[in-house]
């Protein structure tokens, strides 16, 4: 017989689907692709012109801004950066924390200024840009920093975005650090991935420097690793 | 042989794809579905809280509005409606016409008021709601009215949305009116669909009232119909 997809001959044992199902599947694929096109157009329509683009100079959207964000460090050396302009309506739509802050009589809604503590200027720029566009260029460090901000301001979509990126990067070397990070910031999917990687390489665990650090700083997390390991061993042991 | 999809037996002549291609196709479908989920999440993140929902009372987003829109009729009987609050940043992101209007020194940017002529209050509400959410409940009349506004303010995404809806509704009865409407408002896809329907029912054309009206009001459009009919006849005539 001839395959309708690859046009090669196939044997009885390699039989896949009948003609009818094959045609249905092709139609489904076409439909899904059309839906993707529609959704992409919707995303592009809904993206807002960002008041600050980390990769571009001044944006026209800044002219209508009604609030400004400042980075603010609890450390001693104080570098002053230009405030980042933004729109209350956008911040409130994206984050329930900003919404509560700006709807109330809190200092921020009165002064038109929001101070964001302990975050670098570049990270804050990228954060604000994401709230307008749902886009950010990530590397490992930026993904960590943005995830922390996303958790603080309850921007779920950004948190998932960063978490997925971190999951794609985690490996045997970085699993212990990722596990601890995921624990601190309630990143459930990353936690699972990192833990699975640690359990797959248990023989090397105690030799790692990060392991020793974790024992010092947060021994309860180390206990969690051993507990998971024990559970897995019990569950996979041959029955007698 | 047994089909891997429907589990029914099939004959050689009904052979579809081989096992390998079938498995690849299933993977593709899964991938496409995941992409759709991601895009839907992005759309839901990017939707803004609308300052006016035609189906809901007061919105919190109205509190931060910095511009208001008024309907304004060139007719004589004047009903005054509450202005519709909106945000310059959103209008400017969605429409190049609003952008030019609000960036310039035109009256609108000075007064914080935009007058929209010859449109009903409900249509204007639905229009503004769409600019924030990319969502609108359409019926035939609303689709026409919104398409006109979308063309006037160059909101391409909304124009396509209305046009697709109108294409799904056009039939032999309404084709002449849709053809004339599509012509007036540069709706290419609708024009093609309506014209094809007219050509399929040419024998009934001259009996229709809308046809007689069109001959009166815009005979050049009627000529276009006949020209298309002639071209089709020439192209499908059997060669001698």
Could you walk me through the main structural features you see in this protein, from its secondary elements to its overall organization?
Two copies of one chain form a homodimer. By secondary structure, chain A is mostly helical. In chain A, 59% of the residues lie in helices and 8% in strands. Chain A contains twelve helices and four strands. Chain A has helices spanning 19-46, 88-94, 96-103, 107-111, 121-133, 140-152, 156-169, 175-184, 188-200, 202-205, 209-217, 219-236; strands spanning 15-18, 67-72, 84-86, 113-117. In chain A, helix 2 crosses helix 3 (96-103). The two termini of chain A are 49 Å apart. The interface between A and B is large, with 58 and 58 residues. Strand 1 of chain A pairs antiparallel with strand 1 of chain B.
User: On the 0-100 scale, what is the average pLDDT of chain A?
Assistant: 89
Q: What is the radius of gyration of chain A computed over CA atoms, rounded to a whole number of angstroms?
A: 25 Å
Question: What is the rounded distance between the termini of chain A?
Answer: 49 Å
Number of helices of chain A: 12
Anisotropy-based shape of chain A: flat
Largest contact between chains:
A-B, 58 and 58 residues
Strand order, biggest sheet of chain A? 3-2-4
User: Structural class from helices and strands of chain A?
Assistant: mainly alpha
**What's the multimeric state?**
homodimer
Keywords (chains A, B): Coiled coil
Pfam families (chains A, B): BTB
Protein name (chains A, B): BTB domain-containing protein
Pathway (chains A, B): Protein modification; protein ubiquitination
């Amino acid at each position: 017989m001839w395959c309708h997809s690859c046009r090669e001959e196939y044997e009885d044992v390699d039989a896949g689907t009948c003609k009818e199902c094959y045609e249905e599947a092709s139609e489904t694929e076409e439909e899904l692709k059309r839906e993707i096109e529609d959704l992409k157009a919707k995303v592009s329509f809904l993206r807002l012109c960002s008041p600050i683009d980390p990769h571009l100079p001044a944006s026209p959207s800044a002219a209508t801004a009604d609030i400004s964000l400042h980075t603010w460090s609890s450390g001693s050396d104080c570098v002053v950066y230009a405030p980042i302009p933004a729109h209350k309506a956008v911040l409130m739509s994206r984050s329930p924390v900003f919404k509560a802050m700006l709807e109330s009589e809190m200092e921020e809604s009165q002064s038109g200024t929001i101070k964001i503590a302990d975050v670098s200027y570049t990270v804050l720029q990228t954060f604000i840009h994401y709230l307008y566009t749902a886009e950010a260029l990530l590397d490992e460090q930026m993904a960590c920093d943005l995830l922390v901000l996303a958790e603080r301001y309850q921007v779920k979509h950004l948190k998932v975005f960063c978490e997925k990126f971190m999951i794609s990067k985690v490996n045997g070397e970085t699993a212990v650090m990722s596990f601890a990070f995921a624990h601190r910031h309630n990143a459930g999917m990353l936690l699972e991935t990192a833990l699975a990687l640690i359990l797959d390489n248990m023989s090397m665990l105690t030799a790692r420097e990060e392991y020793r650090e974790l024992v010092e700083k947060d021994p309860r997390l180390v206990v969690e690793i051993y507990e998971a390991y024990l559970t897995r061993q019990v569950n996979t042991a041959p029955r007698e």
